[in-house]
Amino acid sequence: MAEKLPPSPGGGITPLQQMLASGTGAILTSLFVTPLDVVKIRLQAQRTPFSKGKCFLYCNGLMDHLYVCQNGSSCTAWYKAPGHFTGTLDAFVKITRNEGIRSLWSGLPPTLVMAVPATVIYFTTYDQLRDYLRTRVGSWNHYIPLLAGALARLGAVTVISPLELIRTKMQSRQLSYRELRVCIQSAVAQDGWLSLWRGWGPTVLRDVPFSALYWFNYELVRSWLCRQPWLDGSTFTVSFASGAISGTVAAVLTLPFDVVKTHRQIQLGDSEVHPVTACRPSKPSSTWLLMQRIRAESGTRGLFAGFLPRVIKVAPACAIMISTYEFGKSFFQKLNQEQQLRGL
């Protein structure tokens, strides 16, 4: 079933300009969303103080990162800073007043080293694949964003997964670069090159369906909004609303995979912190077995744990990222058109 859609604002720009637009969007998204996760982690640490070697997840709005708590003497770590908070709003106010507003972005810089390149690869690849498939088919089909979104995310996860594992190794064992090289060589010699992609499976199971659903719904919602007489084409508002709606839908539908991925990431972190225990026969179970175990222990509701926090985090992150990206592409498109007119 083919359908004609209004042209995407990404038409007529170079891949480098797409990369610049997505990189800008990634940084802005992180700046807006990170304070939400910093406050969540601080509240979590207040209820249950982090002990040495404990792992927790940190999200900068673009991707999840594993943090490993260092030794007890490192009381200057941002996640161990003392505070007596009565709730989320109180935490925002007290952290800003007592520690300075910069504290709301604690832990952000090292995660951007992974998150920005991953986002640039992901969004640029999606646009290139979507336009390629659209050209080959000759008309717009609903499966195009579904397929392009899935393949783009698969590529980004595959490229970044080994780098994230290396970052976790460095943080958990405080290795020098020479020690890290020896550690990686030892792992490859023992388990093969695929050992560098540990944790890849659960990440793909969550991120690829999320991406496929996200882009499928985004293009549908955007095309519907563009046809509304009270909206002037594919504006910033259209992109923002489309991103928020499609992000929410995708987040809800893939929530069970997110719960499993969180469990597997914590397992992976524990195996890096406690390599001796990780070598024992109790290997991490498969994704499906883990889902069955969670369901047996907590019921079906356990597979949808963290529903509200995930939606609150994902919806604004998707909205800010896609609207900034589309705005950047529109800017470069107009710039290119002006340059072409001057050249005539």
Report on the structure:
- This protein is mostly helical.
- The protein is 69% helix and 3% strand.
- The protein is built from eleven helices and two strands.
- It has helices at 15-47, 88-99, 108-137, 143-173, 177-191, 200-226, 236-253, 255-273, 275-278, 287-298, 307-343; strands at residues 55-59, 64-68.
- A two-stranded antiparallel ribbon has the order 1-2.
- Mean pLDDT is 83; it is low at 1-7 and 276-284.
Structure summarized in a few sentences:
The chain has 344 residues and is mainly alpha-helical. The protein has helices at 15-47, 88-99, 108-137, 143-173, 177-191, 200-226, 236-253, 255-273, 275-278, 287-298, 307-343, and strands spanning 55-59, 64-68. The protein has a two-stranded antiparallel ribbon.
| Share of helix, binned | 55-70%
Q: What class do helices, strands and sheet pairing give?
A: mainly alpha
Terminal-residue CA separation? 40 Å
Radius of gyration: 22 Å
* Oligomeric state as shown: single chain
Low-confidence stretches: 1-7, 276-284
Biggest sheet: strand arrangement: 1-2
Strand and helix order: HEEHHHHHHHHHH
Question: What is the strand content?
Answer: under 5%
Average pLDDT level? 83
Give the overall silhouette: globular
Number of helices: 11
Specify the biggest β-sheet: 2 strands, antiparallel
Number of strands: 2
